[in-house]
Specification:
Blueprint (H helix, E strand, L loop, with lengths): L4 H19 L8 H14 L3 E6 L3 E7 L8 E7 L26 H18 L5 E7 L7 H7 L2 H4 L4 E8 L7 E2 L3 E4 L1 E10 L3 E2 L9 H19 L6 E10 L6 E2 L2 E10 L2 H21 L3 E7 L5 E3 L1 H14 L3 E2 L11 H7 L2 E7 L18 H15 L4
Parallel strand pairs: 3-4, 3-5, 5-16, 6-15
Antiparallel strand pairs: 1-2, 2-4, 6-16, 7-14, 8-12, 8-13, 9-11, 10-12
Helix pairs in contact: 1-3, 1-10, 2-3, 3-10, 6-7, 8-10
The chain binds nickel (II) ion (NI).
């Protein structure tokens, strides 16, 4: 089950790019230096068709195969942004920017896609066009959506799209995915409850906002247990609860709750939203108080299409001895979901071995996973668009 020999040769170079990016993390859409690095590398490989500024700071590059008899186009995507975390790995190539760290391995993803690009330019052993998608702002900024809104799929005629993410806890170089929902949607809500403040000794003259908000929290938890079909997975968490009272003898006038709803089922997402509004507003009303709900939609459910998942797994089996075909979905979210809403495709986990979890200050991307990741991209392209 070999990775491509060429990637063994390129491994030191790709590791060097990865560590350079690791030392210079950038956040959200402010990935100018990273994008410039990507463009420089692509130019050095001989990629001519490079477009910057898609989704503000995203980079899109097209590589033509030796032939193009059917007009086939495949998109391969990597994310470029880091996290607002202060690194605590002690690595000699640790982040040089305090408070910013590649703690999710996007430096690895970007370098892997660059490595695949170098190979694809050198060999062009396919019939059609590969579109490389380097996106900003995966970590909460919806950079993938911004690129789609800029016409990514239509402008480059992308027919199917693939992406990967490293996964701590999975053996280095192993792959895991599943057809259907793989990662959850993630929406946030804020509920501002307004009662009537007053003296703690005269509750009858007040409307106790703390009590009302507490009832709302309890009632919100009935949504998952009483409204959602038990075969579906939904999690609702109220993460913050604050009131404007700062004294034990004062009844609060206002309270603010913040929470999140995550699910693997788009229909549950709509139902949960409707119920959060209803439960908050009507519970408050029952006490003579008022609740104002603000809903902040986040990333959709990441849904792999069955046929493309089969292709992704086939390519994985060709380059790795360890491939998990029906991995359990997990509840983080991922803005590759927006690309999968527009085109068929698949997202796959690439084993990162036994490290701290993503988003942890001691997380470390394992450079030994690079050849497998590059080989998977190359294999996919050559299998989906075989040379004529
Ligand atoms: Ni990530």
């Amino acid at each position: 089950m070999p990775t491509r020999n060429r990637f063994a040769e390129l491994h030191p170079d790709i590791t060097g790019w990865r560590r350079h990016l690791h030392q210079h993390p950038e956040l959200l859409y402010d990935v100018e230096e990273t994008a410039a690095f990507v463009v420089d590398r692509l130019k050095a490989f001989g990629v001519e068709d490079i477009t910057t500024g898609i989704g503000r700071t995203g980079v899109v590059a097209a590589i033509k195969g030796k032939t193009d008899t059917k007009g086939r186009v495949i998109g391969l995507r990597a994310d470029m942004d880091a996290l607002p975390i202060t690194e605590a790995t002690g690595l000699d190539y640790a982040s040089t920017v305090r408070g910013k760290m590649h703690a999710c391995g996007h430096d690895g993803h970007t370098s892997i896609l660059l490595g695949a690009a170098q190979y694809l330019v050198e060999t062009r052993n396919f019939d059609g066009t590969v579109v490389l998608i380097f996106q900003p702002a995966e970590e909460g900024g919806a950079g993938g959506k911004a690129m789609c809104d800029d016409g990514l799929m239509e402008r480059w005629g992308i027919e199917e799209v693939y992406g990967l993410h490293n996964m701590p806890g999975l053996p280095v170089g192993a792959f895991a995915t599943r057809p259907g929902p793989l990662l959850a949607s993630s929406d946030e809500f804020e509920i501002v409850v307004t009662g009537k403040g007053g003296h703690a000794a005269a509750p009858h003259a007040a409307i106790d906002t703390t009590l009302v908000a507490s009832q709302i929290v309890v009632s919100l938890h009935s949504i998952v247990s009483r409204n959602i079909d038990p075969i579906h997975r939904v999690v609702l968490t109220v993460g913050t609860f604050e009131t404007d009272s700062t004294a034990s003898n004062v009844i609060a006038h206002a309270a603010r709750l913040q929470g999140t709803v995550r699910t693997l089922d788009p229909s549950c997402r709509d139902l949960a939203k409707e119920r959060v509004y209803r439960v908050a507003e009507d519970t408050a009303s029952a006490f003579g108080a008022r609740a104002e709900v603000t809903w902040v939609p986040g990333y959709p459910v990441t849904v792999n299409t069955p046929e493309e998942t089969a292709h992704a797994l086939e390519a994985a089996r060709a380059v790795s001895a360890t491939v998990i075909e029906n991995v359990d979905p997990i509840l983080p979210s991922e803005d590759f979901a927006y690309m999968l809403e527009q085109r068929p495709g698949a997202y796959i986990f690439l084993g990162n071995g036994d490290t701290a979890m993503c988003h942890h200050p001691q997380y470390m991307f394992d450079d030994d996973a690079i050849p497998a990741g590059c080989s998977w991209f190359a294999e996919l392209v050559e299998r989906r668009m075989p040379a004529q």
